[in-house]
Write a structure and sequence with these properties.
InterPro entries: Metallo-B-lactamas (IPR001279), RibonucZ/Hydroxyglut_hydro (IPR036866). Keywords: Hydrolase, Zinc. This is MBL fold metallo-hydrolase. This protein is of the alpha/beta class. It has eight helices and 14 strands. It binds zinc ion (ZN) (2 copies).
Length: about 240
């Protein structure tokens, strides 16, 4: 199984794609979140939008879902097969409310989300090519539904989240890598995880971490390298690959 970053940027990133990864299995794939910046990243990897077979949505902020409408239309025109869209049961109605203004009306009459995607509503977990992915409820913005994704024994992917220190320490012994969001800025943002918080974790946990969802400043390779050297932390970037076996 190979995980490749399509983008590692936050909502206000313009020089890099918004945060999303492509997980490739021997015969299928899964994309976690679907920002519009994925189109360019996938093309750069020699892939087309209709190559995407499974999508999971962590939450409904624009930078994580603003490519879904185009993905649905594109696959409808260029593919016989609809991508599977894995949506947590608590998120489904809200996702359709968000997307319906662009997807409901068509020259063939009213359409639903299921006309564009093979919608897979789940409660706790879903499976792709025999691998279980468990949704972990996270605290991102109070009142907002958001989930990370646990793929044991390989990785945990936080999505956008404040730091749940107890959980991260607890699952660190169950997975090889922890992909965690961190804005890498000095000021504390209430809905995200700060560098200071990451640095407060035990060193053995930090060593397993790869940081993502950060501002454009660290697309500058000198800035990124300098921060990695200073902290000993790893920072993801577009096209960074991780292999799991
Ligand atoms: Zn975000
Ligand atoms: Zn968010």
């Amino acid at each position: 199984m190979k995980l490749t970053f399509l983008g590692a940027g936050d909502m206000f990133s313009f020089n890099q794609g918004h945060n999303s990864v492509l997980v490739e299995f021997s015969s299928t794939n899964l994309v976690i979140d679907f920002p519009e910046t994925n189109f360019k990243a996938l093309r750069e990897m020699g892939k087309d939008l209709n190559d995407i077979q499974n999508v999971f949505i962590s939450h409904l902020h624009e930078d994580h879902i603003n490519g879904l409408q185009l993905l649905g239309y594109y696959c409808g025109v260029h593919s016989e097969i609809k991508p599977n869209l894995f949506v947590h049961s608590t998120l489904y109605d809200l996702l359709w409310q968000t997307l319906r203004t662009g997807l409901e009306h068509s020259t063939f009459g009213p359409k639903s989300l299921s006309d564009y995607f093979n919608v897979q509503i789940f409660d706790d977990e879903f499976t792709v090519e025999g691998q279980t992915f468990r949704a972990i409820k996270t605290l991102h913005v109070p009142g907002m539904i958001s989930h990370g994704l646990l793929c044991e024994p390989h990785f945990y992917y936080s999505g956008d989240s404040t730091l749940d220190e107890d959980f991260v320490v607890q699952i660190s012994s169950n997975v090889k890598t922890i992909f965690h969001e961190c804005h890498l800025q000095n000021e504390q943002l209430k809905s995200h995880t700060s560098l200071e918080e990451i640095m407060s974790l035990p060193k053995e946990v930090r060593d397993q971490m790869v940081l993502m969802h950060y501002e454009d400043r660290y697309t500058d390779i000198m800035e990124k390298n300098s921060l990695e050297e200073r902290t000993g932390l790893k920072i993801a970037a577009a096209h960074t690959e991780f292999h799991f076996s």
